[in-house]
Request: fold
Amino acid sequence: MNQDIILNWVENNKEQIWKNFKTLVQIPSLTGEEAQAQSFVAKHLKALSMRVEIKEPNIKELFEKYPEIAQYPSSWQPELDLPLKFYDICTYEQLMNSPYAEKLTYKGRPNVVATLQGTGNGRSLILNGHIDVVTIGDKNRWNCEPFGAQEKNGRIYGRGTSDMKGGLWAMITALEAIIRCGISLKGDVIVQSVVNEEHSGNGSLACVAEGYQADAALVCEPTGSKSYSKTSGGGVYWEMKLTGKEAHTGSRWKDGKANGISAIEKTPLLINALLAHEAEENKEQTKLSLGIGTIKGGDYATSTARECVISGVVYFSPALGTGVKGIQKVKALFANAIEEASKNDPWLLEHKPEVSYLHYDDAYCYPEDSEFASVLCHCGKKVLGKELEEISFSACDARHLGNQGGIPVIIYGPGDLSLAHSIDESIDKEDLISAVKVIACTICDWCGVEE
Reply:
């Protein structure tokens, strides 16, 4: 009965929900510039009489508590997006000793956390979403204003609509619907609007460090309202530097031996070794995808290249390993590939390629002994009239709440992941409403309702 009241409220207030959502989309919140949008979110949550805390992440504390996982802050500008390289793990000292210590901070970039306290004897729930969005790229390629929130054919267009202001607004609106309908929950609900999910995840990691805990968490990334995920993939951004011996091509050979060694000519050995190790790891099950994105080397066409740099990313599933284990396995893959390529090549044996890293995410997998997934699926079927489809999802902040926080986490929210970071990003209006209804129902069933 209570849920019917909530669902009717959502249906009767669709126009206002879309209007509020469009206002949020119209506030640019590029990574590093989240303050104005966070103020909007905080104001809305305060109007619901929730206890709201506004606090900037403490980057030093994150590195002290989570030295193998914490990352330095990032920003959307190309020169500030992953500018540091490290041979093993990122450290606070490295950031402080870099030219970016004053530029990459959380000053003026707060998390917003609001708590709706329950009456007691209910299960608690965290609702998590990130406010930051990626750069718009070339504005001339957009067919609509990137922050215009234009409506067309039942969709709302703009950067962040799917990734993930749609999910953030769906979870806030779901709780608003419960409050507006005068329904009292038994368990506490904690809303987290976090900064710097893109290329960092420190906003959510800061919430974990601050001690926010719950019996379960919902990260409202864009699975679409009809799907959900129990997993979050991992990723490692890498770079490999090979060295050669520069010489004019005319003097490449001297006394019957190679005098000039091009770093470029050694790259096939490394690439083939990496691909072989990737294939071996995926022999029985696809666990990782090795991306080789760029190769840059040499200064002149008439000289052997003294240096060549290969860069890319490895994405991996929880099957490779969750938490730090998965990241370590990726690093081991590179170490083994270098050993393999070097053992039959005297030059590489003497001049080992150097691997450095720019960023890493750990993978997460939902613990099957938690009841939360079944509650979400039950509500999905009740609201939508069909079973929710289970899918896999890419790296997101579920990893921090799950791995570092020890909280059972499910990923569920409106939007289309394939449109994230894309030109003319958009979200289906009704998909947003459907997600609001499912989330509201899930909150009630999980936390319990006072009769």
